[in-house]
From TrEMBL:
A family per Pfam: Pyr_redox_2
An example molecular function term from Gene Ontology annotations: NADH dehydrogenase activity
Domain FAD/NAD(P)-binding: 18-351
Region Disordered: start-end pairs: 451-470
Family annotation (PANTHER family): NADH DEHYDROGENASE (PTHR43706), NADH DEHYDROGENASE-LIKE PROTEIN RV1812C (PTHR43706:SF45)
Composition bias, Pro residues: 459-470
Homology family: Belongs to the NADH dehydrogenase family.
Keyword terms of this UniProt record: FAD, Flavoprotein, NAD, Oxidoreductase
Domain of life of the source: Bacteria
Name of the protein described by the UniProt record: NADH dehydrogenase
């Protein structure tokens, strides 16, 4: 064993232990937070150091993305600044390009890499936490890369909100019936949490916004949900899945089950059932895949590309390497059947991070490791304002009670008291005042007006899929 980590005196780490956390999402942030609490004395004495490498200086609380897109929550309250929360860690804004665990090094590009004219910076470590999360699973659908919109980051959520309102503005001002019809047709691909909640919240927002347009009515808009399987929201059970479909159809949402998107080239959504919908909005929420950085590691993976982990959250067949969350295949010891792994959701990620932080501290001190075991408690989903579905500990809820439980649960889970108070205050204010329906599309290309004033041509509009979404 590495003497840097394993030499122990009276339960204390004797020499400096370098801990590298790759990823600043649920697992990355909560693991680092747990470590800086568990290793408080060691950090103070300089016997340990924690470095967090993350592409963004904040953690996004993804369950609130639909509400941020609908304008119920301010975008800045959906994210948690890592440097404020991880005040005893070194936060490096950059992308891990590769990991050579045999040499205990990770190659990282930072914001300064291109300016310096050098290659990736090598970070040496003694303990590795690999938690890069996942990215959108994009299929080779013609036109998708050019016209598709993702829904995994706060930038995409706010961009989609601006886009929907912009389409209503286009429909209100055009005299071309074909353009108007395409602008008011919104296609969402994927019937999981992201697709159903995003469609439910945005349809509700657009229905509210339509009252301020003299020539756009809610019935003029077409909302289409495309799902390849025969059910939506499989996590909440078949009965609540059928209720969700009925509720969406009651709101004039066209739900197409057992249907795939075959093409969206030339701004025409072509479905596998032969339907064709001219549209300027195709939102892709059809699943995720492990982060591409896993392809550039020497660590063992499953057939699906995830890191092969033990129930103690160490990476199988290696030492001093750990993983959890979307990128890890963690055995579900409560399932009662061999080979079953934990679902890639926030419920498991938050709990895995705590055990992961504890186990790294135990390993550094030569103590026994804990086994991760959590029986799935259930799921909650919002379908828009005052509507939702929930299955918690076998009990099924729908309508307002489920919507209230959805908000209460996620308010209790969003990190920091500061964020909890701000989100709660925004919900209270939203109940007292009218909803904002302003599109700030210029935020996506803020220099366009200045470039035009300076006599140049505005830079082309950036693609809909920002970093990490494809």
């Amino acid at each position: 064993m590495d003497k840097r980590k394993r030499r122990v005196r009276h339960g204390m780490v004797k020499e400096r232990a370098r801990i590298l956390v790759v990823g600043g999402g649920y697992v990355g942030m909560y693991t680092a937070l747990r470590l800086q609490r568990k290793l408080k004395a060691e950090l103070r004495r300089g016997e340990a150091e924690i470095t967090v490498v993350t592409p963004d200086p904040y953690m996004t609380y993804q369950p609130f993305l639909p509400e941020a897109a609908a304008g119920s929550i301010s975008p800045r309250h959906v994210v948690v600044p890592l440097r404020r929360v991880l005040d005893r860690c070194q936060v490096v804004v950059g992308e891990a390009q590769s990991v050579d665990h045999a040499r205990r090094t990770a190659a990282v590009t930072t914001l300064a890499t291109e300016e310096e004219g050098r290659g990736a910076r090598l970070f040496r470590y003694d303990e590795l936490v690999l938690a890069p999360g996942s990215v959108s699973r994009v299929l080779p659908v013609p036109g998708l890369a050019d016209h598709g919109i993702g829904f995994k980051t706060v930038e995409e959520a706010i961009g989609l909100r601006n886009h929907v309102i912009e389409q209503m503005d286009i429909a209100s001002s055009t005299r071309d019936p074909a353009l108007r019809d395409a602008a008011l047709t919104f296609v969402f691909v994927g019937g999981g949490y992201a697709g159903v909640e995003a469609l439910g919240e945005l349809e509700n927002m657009a229905r509210y916004a339509a009252r301020y347009y003299h020539n756009v009515a809610p019935d003029d808009m077409k909302w289409i949900l495309v799902e390849a399987t025969d059910r939506v929201l499989p996590e909440v059970g078949a009965e609540l899945g059928r209720y969700t479909v009925s509720e969406l159809r009651r709101r004039n949402v066209d739900v197409r089950l057992g249907t795939r998107l075959e093409s969206c080239a030339d701004r025409v959504a072509v479905l596998s059932d032969g339907s064709r919908f001219p549209t300027r909005t195709v939102v892709w929420t059809a699943g995720v895949r492990p982060h591409p950085v896993l392809d550039a590691t020497d660590l063992p993976r499953t057939d699906h590309g995830k890191l092969r982990c033990t129930a103690q959250l160490s990476i199988e067949g290696t030492t001093h390497a750990w993983a959890a969350g979307d990128a890890a295949a963690v055995p579900d010891v409560t399932a009662g059947e061999p080979g079953r792994t934990c679902a890639p959701n926030a419920q498991h990620a938050l709990r895995q991070a705590r055990v992961l932080g504890d186990n790294i501290a135990h390993a550094l001190r030569g103590e026994p490791l804990e086994t991760y075991a959590h029986r799935y408690a259930g799921s909650v989903a919002s379908l828009g304002h005052h509507q939702g579905v929930a299955q918690v500990y076998g009990r099924r809820l729908k309508g307002y009670p489920a919507w209230f439980m959805h908000r209460a649960y996620h308010l209790s889970r969003v990190p920091t008291v500061n964020r909890k108070a701000r989100v709660l205050a925004e919900w209270v204010l939203a109940g007292l005042f009218k909803r904002e329906i302003v599109s700030l599309g210029s935020l996506e290309h803020p220099r366009a007006e200045f470039e035009l004033a300076a006599g140049g041509k505005p830079s082309p509009e950036p693609p809909h899929n920002p970093k990490g979404s494809s």
